[in-house]
TrEMBL record:
Keyword terms: ATP-binding, Coiled coil, Kinase, Membrane, Nucleotide-binding, Phosphoprotein, Transferase, Transmembrane, Transmembrane helix, Two-component regulatory system
Domain of life according to the entry: Bacteria
EC class (word): transferase
Histidine kinase/HSP90-like ATPase domain residues: 290-383
Protein name in UniProt: histidine kinase
Residues in coiled coil: 157-184
Pfam families: DUF7134, HATPase_c, HisKA_3
Catalytic activity field: ATP + protein L-histidine = ADP + protein N-phospho-L-histidine
Gene Ontology MF terms in the entry: ATP binding; phosphorelay sensor kinase activity; protein dimerization activity
Residue spans crossing the bilayer: 14-32, 102-120, 132-150
UniProt-listed Enzyme Commission number(s): 2.7.13.3
One GO cellular component, as annotated: membrane
Signal peptide, first to last residue: none
Amino acid sequence: MLGRLWDWWRTKKPLVDAAFMAPLLLMSALIIWNGSGFPVPDIALVLALCLPLVLRRTYPRAVFATVALSSFFQCVAGVDLLPANIAVLMGIYTLAADQPRIWGLAAAAVGELGAAMAALRYGGAGDDSKGMFIMLSIQVWSVWILGTYISTRRAYTRSVEERAERLEKERDQEVQMAMAAERARIARELHDVVAHNVSVIVVQADGASYAIETDTARAKEALETISVTGRQALAEMRRLLGVLREGDDAGSYAPQPGVGQLGDLVEQVRTSGLPLDFEVTGTPHEMSEGRQLTVFRIVQEGLTNTLKHAGPKAAARVRLHYGDEAVEVRIVDDGRGAAAANDGRGHGLAGMRERAAVYGGTVDAGPRPGGGFEVIARIPVREEVPA
């Protein structure tokens, strides 16, 4: 309750300024009261000095000009100094704290001029006049220094708040970029999973449709392969889509496939009816899961393209070579090659290149001169653990 009241009070600048002005008005009224009433000229002077202070922070320059002129006429008329003359110091402080530096200096200069006039008018002769001038000058420049300090402090506070706000926006942007990168990764994973498994299912379904009347056993085997492949595809899709769910406490998901699962991938493709030769040469490196996933997906995408575009009588060969500097993956088929139809909707080759580029690798793909298609990927392993 008190906090809300204080926040409301701080937003009402005229009320706050009136509260600071009230003591000056009261003390000045007590001084000019002579026991039988209030002299009208003195009352007018006090009101001219005090009432503008209600708008001190709303119109700081106009208020300072008003109280400075009122003090000037007071000095010229020879009216004694009053507590209300502190309004000049309050105006100097306001300009130094809330306005550009030049206005604060100008107000201090006007205050210094007023101190000299007051010393000559009210200080008498000799040392008394000098002492009064020094005292008033100290007050003027002390108030100006205080206002300048407050202005600097406010500027520093604003800069800190702006920096905190900027850092918060940058953090939100980083989170959004991370989310976008994760969505892109999931999209690539879904593309690889769906494209490969659906290609296997289509090939097996075509085989089953041809063999169902002549070779029941082969048709049954193809349908079983379709069932297993479909279940695997659904399981991987659930795992990938599961990371998009918020607040899901179902537990950790299955690990990503790596080079250890290439044998299972090769067997799955062979089961689909594609003759496939798989060879591993060199000394295997210890690679991170990310690099292993990249190798697996490149082989998977290459074989998926073979199933989709190479033709019914094609054969393929996969060679995985562990070199000193990089792992080389070569997927070759003897299918249609350049004669294969391209629907323009595939993203497999682009996905391969993106995956390899993450680790500084390259992917070269294209038809072979003697027929067929070839994919060659090189994934550097220099920063990985040695063999």
